[in-house]
Sequence to fold (334 residues):
Amino acid sequence: MSDFFSKHSVRRQSSSSRKAPLPPLQARKAVAGAKKTAYPLSRIALLIRFLKPVTWIPVIWSFLCGAVASGAFGWSDLFGWKFFLAILLTGPLASGTCQMLNDYFDRDLDEINEPWRPIPGGAISLKSATVLIAIWSVLSVLAGYLIHPLIGLYVIIGIINAHLYSANPVKLKKRLWAGNIIVAVSYLVIPWIAGEIAYSEQLSPDTLMPSLIVAGLFTLASTGTMTINDFKSVEGDRRNNIRTLPVVFGEHSAAVIASGLINAGQLLAAGYLYLLGQPLHALTVALLIIPQFVLQFSLVRSPNTMDVRYNAIAQNFLVAGMLVCAFAIRQYRL
Fold:
């Protein structure tokens, strides 16, 4: 792939100088993008940027929660080949594939919201992106199959979900709730159940049901956190008719709705743990909601400036609650 790094920066700048002046907001973002790409990246650094490592963490964590909930995962398994392969799968492989797909299909939006991204910035050509996506998709399915054949099937479902989310004509991200729900399912339910499948000695609908319910309830909460992620791209979404909650209801109302979903999902999960006979775990999950609730006041007052800070702090308490739920399910099965 000799054109993996297209060195077009000078040509792009000269051609853009002949175009009509940009609107003020777009001009500012173009300047910001130029600043971020001032120093050329190595091939490895550019590939890492394309794969967006920050998005791997929730998927890896969900897999770990599912593994813990299975009741058959121990400390020694952290150093086993299966867990190492699972980290590769849920991190750079499957999650990376979905991020590359999103960047590929969202390149027009990124020209407005994030012009420094590899494709709109001209660092990666569409041909190279297509080849990378194909290779990563095959490697992801293969890694999933090696862990368990059913996980290979789950990986295929996840890649299909990524297409449904980003690609026309479906493009679920345009359809209000549907986009955030399918992302939350792909980030939470699929890897959580994959963790169960990887380590459970007995697989049946009955044994998987507690994890399905808890993962489903945290999917409700994660739909709220996905809404908070939409605040950073309101301008581009509005121009391209992407019907996210902030675009449809306004940023203030969307922050209120997102906060309600986040709290409701976790409260319902705490209630379910209580029904399973795990009151201490249920209380712990409920207490972990309190710092999130406090931070939500600032989020609602100023969604477009507090979104990153809220997720950076509040998400820690939410994912801690997920692990508490996993230990509760593990204890319930003993």
